[in-house]
Design goal:
Blueprint (H helix, E strand, L loop, with lengths): L1 H25 L9 E7 L1 E24 L4 E6 L6 E2 L4 E5 L2 H29 L5 H26 L2 E3 L4 E3 L9 E2 L4 E18 L11 E6 L2 E17 L5 E9 L10 E17 L4 E3 L2 E8 L5 E13 L2 E6 L6 E5 L10 E6 L6 H5 L10
Parallel strand pairs: 1-19
Antiparallel strand pairs: 1-18, 2-9, 2-13, 3-5, 3-8, 4-7, 5-6, 7-9, 9-12, 10-11, 10-13, 11-12, 13-17, 14-15, 15-16, 15-18, 16-17
Length: 369
């Protein structure tokens, strides 16, 4: 009797448990948290260069101190301070009265000796004169002509002309002033092209060669970058500083750069196209750097990749290994995800819009919440 009672109780308990289990199985399982929204950027190729920084002083392509060759009184000044002049343009004129008078006297002598030579020729043709007499008159005529050429050359020294196109500096003379040989009249600089000599450590010698691009800046123009090229590399290394002098040239059509300005230069060496990722996609892992890649072909699963980096430029880092072109790396939201987690791609960042523009939503219409 007792055994029957126990068996009945056990059957009832199993039945109750089975009913409870069936009831629990019929209930819906609770849902997990939604996928984390992230913003990604696709790995793409960018141009990178290595930069060598240096300082240099701007120099004119051609420069000259305009000075008097002879003594004389100034009778004309044909330029203004800072004026652009062309090659051959007259700048300063000295008094030439004495030289002109001397030239006229020499021309009169030449005319007289020319007539004497012609008479000697006639006498020789009529066999009334000697060959020696004819040779003497010819020599006298040639001498007179040479003296005229010398007088004209001296006369040219009384007019100072521009030897090339350029900007004249401040004039240091006035009309009526007496100048002596060597006295400074003004300066002339060809600043259409600027030369800059700068020193570079000899460790970079193998990478330096004519034709490399150069970018230059100066405090006078805050954000302006002047483009140029390496023109030449010196043939010697300084044994004291172990540096070598490099000369770069910059086009200066607006004459913005003036001789004497301090320039900050960057020589762009080893240009190359290589894969890059945004710097805000990098996650420090000890002494290494990693990125979180969204595997779009596997349900947007997050994969952690350690990457090897090279140079950096304008918010991007050169990637030598670790990712492939076209893969999506998380740029915003990486701190909220873990490897293996599923995420939702909110937007693909391409660098043309700010994060505010990417996340901006349209305002709801009236009557809508």
């Amino acid at each position: 009797m007792f055994l029957r009672s126990v068996m009945a109780t056990s059957v009832a308990f199993v039945a109750v448990c089975g009913a409870a289990a069936a009831q629990d199985a019929g209930k819906a399982k609770p849902k997990g948290p939604p996928p984390t929204p992230v913003i990604v950027s696709e790995v793409a190729s960018r141009t990178f260069v290595d930069r060598i920084e240096a300082l240099g002083t701007a120099r004119a392509n051609e420069t000259v101190r305009m000075a008097a060759k002879i003594s004389g009184r100034i009778v004309g000044i044909d330029f203004d301070d800072g004026e652009l002049v062309r090659k051959g343009a007259p700048l300063v004129r000295l008094n030439t009265d004495e030289e002109l008078a001397n030239l006229r006297a020499l021309q009169a002598v030449e005319m007289d000796r020319k007539k004497a030579f012609e008479r000697a020729q006639e006498l020789k043709q009529r066999q009334a004169g000697t060959a020696a007499s004819l040779d003497e008159t010819r020599a006298q005529l040639l001498k007179a002509q040479a003296e005229i050429e010398a007088a004209r050359a001296r006369l040219a020294n009384y007019e100072i002309r521009a030897p090339f196109d350029g900007l004249v500096g401040l004039r240091n003379i006035s009309i009526g002033a007496f100048v002596a040989p060597g006295d400074l009249l003004t300066t002339l600089d060809d600043v259409s092209i600027i030369k800059i000599d700068f020193s570079v450590p000899s460790a970079f010698l193998a990478a330096l060669k004519p034709g490399l691009d150069v970018e230059a800046k100066t405090s006078a123009y805050d954000k302006r970058i002047f483009k140029g090229v390496v023109k030449s590399v010196d043939s010697r290394v300084d044994p004291v500083t172990r540096a070598i002098v490099v000369r770069a040239t910059l086009d200066n059509p607006e004459f913005s750069i003036r001789p004497g300005m301090l320039m900050q230069l960057e020589v762009l060496k080893n240009p190359r196209d290589t894969l890059a990722v945004p710097e805000n996609a990098l996650v420090p892992v000890g002494t290494e750097q990693a990125v979180y890649v969204v595997d779009r072909e596997n349900g947007n699963k997050v994969v952690k990749r350690v990457v090897k980096l090279g140079s950096r430029v304008a918010g991007f880092a050169e990637v030598l290994s670790g990712v492939a072109a076209g893969e999506a790396v998380i740029t915003h939201g990486a701190l909220k995800v873990r490897p293996g987690q599923t995420v939702t791609i909110r937007a693909v960042e391409d660098g043309t819009k700010t994060i505010e523009e990417i996340l901006k939503k349209k305002a709801p219409a009236k009557g809508q919440s």
